[in-house]
Specification:
Layout (H helix, E strand, L loop, with lengths): L1 E5 L5 H11 L3 E5 L11 H6 L7 E4 L2 E4 L1 H11 L14 H8 L1 H15 L13 H11 L13 H15 L7 H11 L2 H11 L2
Parallel strand pairs: 1-2
Antiparallel strand pairs: 1-3, 3-4
Helix pairs in contact: 1-3, 1-7, 1-9, 4-7, 5-7, 7-8
This protein binds glutathione (GSH).
Length: 199
């Protein structure tokens, strides 16, 4: 069975959400992060070169990073229809939004935490305001990033918008607020959160 190496209230929530969306059975393996002395499961270390969660072991396949895990699961378990196929024209924007969280949203959040003002034209993520306005434009038609079709890109991006709200970084934005509300109402997100509460 798939093993998900996780810790509560981390980016591992995305991987759990994605697993719930696919419906593939999995087992959670709790990792005590932030304790350098803690003994580590060798299977975790094999999957996570940086020692970070989430990480996943699926048979002989092991990998870390929430975006990589989400992409892997979408492609490995296509019956769940969570990613446009390679020859689908929507594949392009799907890939753009798949890397938007690690490539744009997270650096823009760090910009806010650090209180710096980047040069929008030379920084790879633009700046915080460009990140938000691009998201709002991407969701203007909605209800999802690919229109009527919910995809793995929404798992990545909606979880990031949720994290921004939790860190009180989200500006007043009805579009983003209703997007995250819609996403978090999905049974798969609810199941992933319920899994965090299990002993
Ligand atoms: N880019 C990675 C970041 C993973 C990450 O930073 N995880 C944090 C928790 S959210 C972690 O494991 N921190 C503990 C540590 O670095 O030892 C991803 O998206 O999965």
């Amino acid at each position: 069975m798939i093993k998900l190496f996780w810790h509560p209230r981390t980016r591992a929530a995305r991987a759990a959400w994605m697993l719930e969306e696919t419906g593939v059975p999995y087992q959670r393996v709790l990792v005590e992060i932030g304790d350098a002395e803690a003994e580590r499961d060798p299977a975790f270390l094999a999957a996570s070169p940086m020692g970070k969660v989430p990480a996943l072991a699926d048979g002989e396949v092991c990998l870390a990073d929430s975006a990589a895990i989400c992409m892997y699961l979408a492609d490995r378990y296509p019956d769940a229809r969570l990613a446009p196929s390679l020859d689908d024209p929507q594949r392009g924007m799907y890939l753009f939004w798949m890397v938007y969280s690690p490539g744009v949203i997270e650096p823009a959040m760090s910009e806010k935490f650090a209180g710096v003002t980047p040069n929008r034209y030379s920084s790879g993520w633009g700046d915080f305001d460009l990140m938000i306005s691009t998201l709002e434009k991407g969701l203007a038609a909605g209800p999802w990033l690919l229109g009527e079709r919910f995809s793995t890109a929404d798992v990545m991006v909606a979880s990031s918008v949720h994290f921004m709200a939790m860190f009180k970084l989200l500006p007043d934005s009805p579009v983003l607020e209703s997007y995250v509300e819609r996403a978090l109402a999905r049974p798969a997100w609810q199941a992933a959160m319920a899994g965090e509460e299990q002993p």
